[in-house]
Amino acid sequence: MENDTASASGTRGASKLKAWRASSAVAGFGLLALLFAWQWYDGYNRIGALRDELAQRVRESESDSRDARFAARQAQEAAREVQAKLAQIELKFAEFQNQQIGLDALYQELSRNRDEWVIAEIEQILTIASQQLQLTGSVQVALSALQTAEARLARSGRSQFLPLRKVFARDIERLKTAPGLDVPGLAAKLDQLIAGVDSLPLAQEARPQASAAAKREADGLWERLAAELLGELKQLVRIENMEGSAPALLSPPQEFFLRENLKLRLLNARLALLARDETAYHGDVKLAASWLGRYFDTRSRAAVAMAATLKQLGSDSAGVSLPTIGESLAAVRAYKPVRKQVGQ
Question: Which of 325, 342, 338 is nearest to 119 (CA)?
């Protein structure tokens, strides 16, 4: 009996243990299910939070992207504007360079033109001075012209004019030491001689001079009347000692051509004087003096004065070797083509 009771109590204990184990298992499963549910809910919330955060970040990223794209567009527009401005600057710089080149060319052209004007002016001055020196022998005029030309080049301050200034300086020194010749004065004397040819008496028209005895006889009134009467009678037949060759007897046409030929000789002497031809000058003056002594009355005042003037003119040297300014003039004329070749 006791065994039955013990077995029965053991059975009940085993059943209770099984029931407790079953309830414990159910409770454990329920706890696990609750834990799983809580974890799932918590995970879901976290996922939602992550989703919201991700969406927020996506929205922020999209906003940043839009801002970045906007900034990029602005940067691109700014870059295009900078490129456009740079292109304009380069264009303006190119225009400035072209203008600078044009201005340089214009300045060089103006400089060349200014040099041409200076050289042309100096050439004109020296040409006139050279002509005056040849015609009148005026050294002072040529010297003044050279000094003016040298001062004109000195004021320009250009180094390329130094060779010309050296040539001018040599001619200036030669002109300062050159002897003077009054060509206008000599020409004026020849003009006076030419004008006085028509008033010269011919040798065939000269009257014999009264002798000293006849002059002594003419002291009283009656003696003078008698002397005059005797003189008139003597004029009917005149005997005169010419003390040399007899003067040529000239007809009126011959007398005219004689005077004209004498004028031509004096005029040729004047031209030879201006042309600096000493040989022709002295030849014409000598021939004019010879004709004066042969055909004209050398005892008349006009002939005596002309003979004295011709002697003075014959003693003057018309061929004085005056220095010329041809070297300076040639240097000026040769300067222009050389300068043009250098400019090209």
Answer: 338
Tell me phi and psi for residue 79, to 5 degrees: -65, -40
Q: What does the block give as tokens for 40?
A: 């799932």
How far lies 222's CA from each of 41, 148, 229, 243, in Å?
197, 79, 11, 33
Residue 267's closest CA among 182, 187, 185? 187
Task: Of 309, 62, 281, give the one whose Cα is nearest residue 197.
Answer: 309
3-state SS class at 32: helix
Q: Is residue 197 classed as helix, strand or coil in its secondary structure?
A: helix
Q: What is the phi/psi pair of residue 321, to 5°?
A: -75, 90
The radius of gyration of the chain's CA atoms, rounded to the nearest angstrom, is: 68
Give the domain ranges of the chain. Answer: 93-179+326-343, 181-202+250-321, 208-237
pLDDT tens digits for range 111-160:
556 777 878 888 888 888 888 777 666 777 888 888 888 888 888 777 78
> Do residues 205 and 302 touch, judged by C-beta distance below 8 A?
no
**C-alpha torsion sign, points 72, 78, 84, 90:** negative
**pLDDT given at position 287:** 92
170 CB-near residues (< 8 Å, 6+ apart) = 327
pLDDT digits (tens, 9 = 90+) for 204-221: 665 555 544 444 444 566
Domain 93-179+326-343: CATH architecture, name and number where available: Up-down Bundle (1.20)
Residue 247's closest CA among 284, 206, 209, 288? 206
- Averaged pLDDT of the chain: 75
